[in-house]
Amino acid sequence: MKEINDVTNIKRLLRRRKKLIVAFLAAAGSFLLGVTLPMNLRANQPAPPRQPQVLAVSSPEPKLISNVSGIAGAIAHRVEVSQQALAQQQETRFQSSLPSQFKGTMLRQAKLDEQHKAIALTFDDGPWPTTTRQILEILKKNNIKATFFWVGRYLQTYPELGKQVASAGHAIGNHTWNHQYIKYNEDGAAREIDRTSSLIEEVTGVKTSMFRPPGGILNNGLAAYAQKKNYAVIMWSADSLDWRTATQSLMDNVMRQANSGGIVLMHDGGGNRSRTVQALPDIIAKLRKEGYKFVTVPELLRMQEQVLNKQETAQK
Ligand SMILES: [Zn+2]
Fold first, then answer.
1. What is the mean pLDDT of residues 270-282?
2. How confident is the model at residue 5 (pLDDT cuts 50, 70, 90)?
3. Does the annotation mark 267 as catalytic?
4. Which of 55, 143, 272, 280 has an alpha carbon 20 to 30 Å from 119's alpha carbon atom?
5. What is the mean pLDDT of residues 171-197?
6. Ion ligand 1: residues, CB < 5 A
7. Number of domains present in the structure of the chain
8. What's the gap in Å between 126 CA and the centre of ligand 1?
9. Residues 14 and 120 in one domain
10. Are residues 33 and 151 both part of a single domain?
């Protein structure tokens, strides 16, 4: 039943994607005709006298299109570029989407055996200048996708950094607007969580269903509200304690607690995270040497779902 549901879901997704692309192609085509035809007409007119240039500008003159095949080529090119942008946007959204069985639950790690050795690196309290970018570079160099839990007010301050993280293919979760350890009534919790999710969607297009409570506090009203709103509350199984410990011991903390299906807690923001940046390449190298594959939290949960489905099918 579950598999049938999944197949139906995938089919529905593909159909929606096709519809989107067709609608988009139609819109892009008519728009480009509107833009390129007048440009073509202008191309046949004598050029106006050039103004003497004060500053040397390095960008080239826009290429004018002088024939129909040129226009067709330009449209095809622009359509291709638009398609790529659309695919990228869908990829970004997919990265943060969870299998529905986990929504509204709380979990510290995924259930995976040693055959499916995978682990999820997570980074909290960003986006943060310098360290978020440094961590992005390290992840890129190692071809790793991670999961970032953002503080809304920092995302408001550094939206470009946020865009960079999402478009690099990392998964995004909600870590409240203010990152406080106080008690919340439902209205207060709603303000912290809803506002942050709205901004995440506004900045990245991602509608996240992952929530991580600040300080891992589960009984102050935030986690309860998040679960009620169908978020998965994502805790962790390996705490680096990177906010209070030296580079070497934060590395030891991760290695000692690492296991298949594990979720590793680190920080890219909220303070000086230079130790995390320093330790990260070694942590990655050591985990890799032990045979771990690095995935996002949603990927980790998709792996669990697939493995369990296979086991169920095998038992029938
Ligand atoms: Zn935090």
1. 96
2. low
3. yes
4. 272
5. 98
6. 124-125, 214
7. 2
8. 9
9. no
10. no
Q: What is the pLDDT of residues 67-86, one digit of tens each?
A: 778 888 888 999 998 888 88
Reduced 3-state DSSP string for 102-161: HCCCEECCCCCCHHHCEEEEEEEEECCCCHHHHHHHHHHHCCCCCEEEECHHHHHHCHHH
Which CATH number covers residue 233?
3.20.20.370
**Residue 232 lies inside a defined structural domain of this protein:** yes
In a domain? residue 52? no
Question: How many Å lie between the centroid of ligand 1 and the Cα of residue 244?
Answer: 13
Distance CA 301, CA 94 (A): 13
141 and 168 share one domain: yes
The answer to whether residues 80 and 213 belong to one domain is no
Q: Is-catalytic flag, 124?
A: yes
* Residue 131 and residue 82 share a domain: no
pLDDT band at 95 (very low <50, low <70, confident <90, very high): confident
Tell me which of 56-65, 147-156, 305-314 is least confident: 56-65
Phi, then psi, of 126 in degrees rounded to 5? -95, -170
Q: How far is the CA of 276 from the centre of ligand 1 (A)?
A: 14
Identify the band that residue 161 occupies on the pLDDT scale cut at 50, 70 and 90.
very high
**Which of 116, 124, 242, 252 does the annotation list as catalytic?**
124
pLDDT at position 42, please?
Answer: 39
| Predicted local confidence at residue 27, as pLDDT | 52
Q: How far apart are CA 30 and CA 52, in angstroms?
A: 36
Domain shared by 84 and 186, yes or no:
no
Same domain for 126 and 72, yes or no, is no
- Cα–Cα separations (whole angstroms), residue 138 to 121, 155, 258, 279, 296: 12, 21, 20, 11, 15
Contact present, 200 and 174 (Cβ < 8 Å): yes
Q: Which two tokens stand for residue 43?
A: 């191309």
Write down the pLDDT at residue 63: 54
109 and 208: one domain?
yes
